[in-house]
Amino acid sequence: HSNRTIMLSTVALAPAFNAPAMRAPATRSAVTMFSEGDLGVLPPLGVYDPLGLIETRDMRRYEIMEIKHGRAAMLGFLHVIALHAGIRVPGYLSTSMDLKFEDVPAGCFASLEAVPTAGGLQIMILTCMQE
C-alpha cells in the first residue's frame, strides 16, 4: 500500500517539473527588470553582470529553469533520505543479473557501481530526453 502511495505521489509531482510554454516577444525593448531594492541587487555593484548578458537574453527562461532544477534537486535530496531510511522499491533492477532494488547499496558511489552499464546508459538517456 505505501509503495503505491509513493508512486502516485511521484506521478502527481511530474507537472511541477514542466516549464510553461513561452512565446518570443513581438518587439525587443530595453531590459528594465532590475531596480534598486530588488533581491540580488546589492550596493555598490547593483546587478553583477560584467559581460552584459542580461540585456541580450530573456531572463524569465533562466528563472524558470532555475526553479525546475531546484525542484529536481529537492526531489533528489528526498530520494537520498528515503534510501538511508531503508525505503526501497520492490522488484528487479535487472532480471538478467538477478539484481533487486533492495540489493543496491545506499551509498552514492557504491550505488552507481552496482547499477549495470546498460542501466546507467538508460538513466543518462532518460535524463537527457527530459532536459
From TrEMBL:
Protein origin, superkingdom: Eukaryota
Primary location class: plastid
Keywords: Chloroplast, Plastid
Keyword Iron attributed: no
Location of the protein in the cell: Plastid, Chloroplast
Any Gene Ontology CC annotation: chloroplast
Protein name: Chlorophyll a-b binding protein, chloroplastic
Organism: Dunaliella tertiolecta
Lineage: Eukaryota, Viridiplantae, Chlorophyta, core chlorophytes, Chlorophyceae
